[in-house]
Specification:
This protein is mainly β. The protein has one domain. It is built from 1 helix and 8 strands; from the N terminus they run E-E-E-E-E-E-E-E-H. This is DUF3331 domain-containing protein.
Length: about 100
C-alpha cells in the first residue's frame, strides 16, 4: 500500500524530515540538515541494518539486523549513514 500523506518529523541535531510518500519497502523523504545538506525528494529503501546506529527520528538504538530505511541513491549522499527504524514508521501508520 502506498501512502502520499505528508508527515513532518523532527530528527536529531536539528534535522527536519518530511515523509512525502511511503510504502512497505520505499520512502520518499525531504531531508533538511541546516548548514550541511538538503534533499527535496530523496528515495529510501527498506533493508536490514548492516551496522548498529541510532534512528534519525526517534533517537532509539538500532541493532545490526533490525529493519530500517536508508537512503538508496547513488552516488552515496551526505546522509548515507542515516537510518530510520521501520518499527517507528509502523507506529506512525497505527496513529493515523
Amino acid at each position: 500500500m502506498k501512502t502520499t500523506e505528508s508527515i513532518p518529523l523532527t530528527g536529531a541535531n536539528g534535522v527536519r524530515i518530511e515523509i512525502l510518500e511511503r510504502s512497505d519497502t520505499t520512502l520518499v523523504i525531504r531531508w533538511v540538515e541546516p548548514g550541511r545538506c538538503h534533499y527535496g525528494e530523496q528515495r529510501w529503501r527498506r533493508r536490514s541494518a548492516h551496522t548498529s546506529g541510532t534512528c534519525a527520528v526517534s533517537r532509539r538504538k538500532i541493532r545490526r539486523g533490525d529493519a530500517v530505511f536508508r537512503p538508496a541513491e547513488r552516488p552515496a549522499p551526505s546522509n548515507a549513514a542515516a537510518m530510520i527504524s521501520a518499527e517507528i514508521l509502523c507506529g506512525l501508520t497505527a496513529e493515523a
